[in-house]
């Protein structure tokens, strides 16, 4: 028994030393883990969360700037849009940035991106459909164009202005009226059986600042002489095309304007800003939790 007591007396100090060392190691490791976690949160807060929150504010401010009229919706891509602000915010979904955000934050940000894409895709799809209707209606109309009949044309190729897409987009978002006259860039009229033996062209361009529709307005509304513009034969045909549009395009305009009036993006648009507000709340909560006073 005395030997057992003696053994215990020797073991207890050793156990005490081992236990003390383990406790010290555990406390040190836990402390370093907590320190690393805090440092990681601080870095994420300063380099990613706060800039992301600022990006949200910048996007909201840009939207307010572009939508001064209550009936105006804003586009997130293209001309006169908040594309740069949107890109700055959505960059936090990239692989090298998203790792610094919590899963819930990433999911909200992805939902925002998807909703914006749905909104823009719907608008772009509607614009393409409207342009398609315009071209089909215009094609039917141009077959009655006197030069088409006189020259026994059997086909034609119509090209719309590059600006037409953005003009329709603006109308869809602002609920304003579009001028459908003068939206054709040029028309090639073909004569003879394929392969066509000959053709002639209506050129609707004039200068970097004006096109044939502008010249037509100056002649018909302000009384300027046609001879003063020095038009080429192709531009003269273009002027005749605008004259023909003025007499026959009204019915097509009614069809197109009615088509535009049926489009509604309000629900998707509102949803975008609901998600944007939710994202800002989530980011600010994470910032507050990572702030040590």
From TrEMBL:
Protein keywords: Coiled coil
Coiled coil: 102-129
Protein name: DUF403 domain-containing protein
Organism ancestry: Bacteria, Bacillati, Bacillota, Clostridia, Lachnospirales
